[in-house]
Model the fold of this input.
Amino acid sequence: MHYWIDGQRHDFSSLLDNEIHALLKPFHHASTEHVFCACQRTDAPDTRLPMYIRQNRSTSLSLARVPRSGNEHHRSCRHFDIAAEDAARLGYDDSVLAVDEEGNQVVALSESLRNSAGATEPRASVVRLGPRAVPRRIYARMTPLGLLHLLWERAWLNRHVVGKVPELPDLVRRLRHAARQIRIRGLRSAHWGIEDFLLLQETPALSTARANFAKLKAAADKDKKVLALAVIEDAMHLARLVDARQRPTLRPLLGVTVRGGDVGRTFEDLLAPSFERALSLLHVGARLAVLALAGTRTYEGTPYAIVENVVATAITPAWIPIDSSREFEFTQLLVAQGRQFEKPLRYDAAESVFPDFVLEDTAQPVPIEIYGMGTLADYAARREKKRSIYQDAYPGRHWEWDVQQEGRLQEWLRRHPLPAAIPSRQRQ
Ligand SMILES: [Zn+2]
Done:
């Protein structure tokens, strides 16, 4: 979390409460604006977002967003609050995503976290956004895949900033921080948001396995389910996630037992067919971020969990989510060239019109679209519609790779170079 305080940039996620208090104290009760959120909106990068300084019950000072400015922050900023219309564009009604006054994201999840509850279908209604718009399904609950995207986005893992591919402990630390600011509606007992019951990838540097054991035990004692987030490195790695009794298990990744119930099945079986595309991307060098929802049990005093639902998103070695092998190739190139960019995430809403990527190190952000090999008539129509949207919204500054015309990326780039990166002070 970065803020500008009197012209200086500070990272609050690395500061203790008393350090934040000391930084803010000189400006408490100041009449002019000194403190701004450092998030930058891709579509309005020059917007300045003032924050106000609030006195907490504990008498320490913290920052809160100015009322009704929630939808002006960047989508991955903790102060971002989605407007009803934007939520609908993502496929959700506005009750699914809300922000409480502490700046926590409050999510209505499609799955109950009580052990006794079975899986539920998210309730959907159909709405029309504007007189000529196509009616679309709006969900009143966020799916686990939507939650995985939300976590990824809040941990800033859908953005690449030059020279900063996070190592695994860094990834886990960021996810843990993001999880603390996401709460599940109707679950009051949570102290640290979903981090209370989110098992994270083991990394000895953070004693994650020990924390996972404590969370699993606490959940089993309260008859609650857990969530488990892990990164699978490649197809070989996925195939090896089987325990001595031939059941799929996440134990090697989490340090505690979270496994499938059936002998002879694999995680690949559990993920297919919904995540066939993500699975196929393992073979081009992608990794897999998986989020499992698992019911807890205790056997002779040891807690364990059985997976009920598992979702996946393909990610690159730089942790950037991708939807296709072309996106993988393109992302690898941007990272190798040291470009700064963002991958907008869909939160499990397949119908949304978002650019595939947004270049952020140019004078103004440049939306990027990769048109694949689709030959269906509705694919071509969708492509034309997207082109006209970009032409209107970003005249002369969107970039595309038309794979049908030229499948070799280097060859396409020779004829259609990417907009050049410029130093950050010259960006708008
Ligand atoms: Zn912000």
The mean pLDDT is 83. The domain at 325-426 is CATH 3.40.960 (Endonuclease; Chain A). Residues 12 and 57 are 19 Å apart (CA to CA). The longest strand covers residues 302-315.
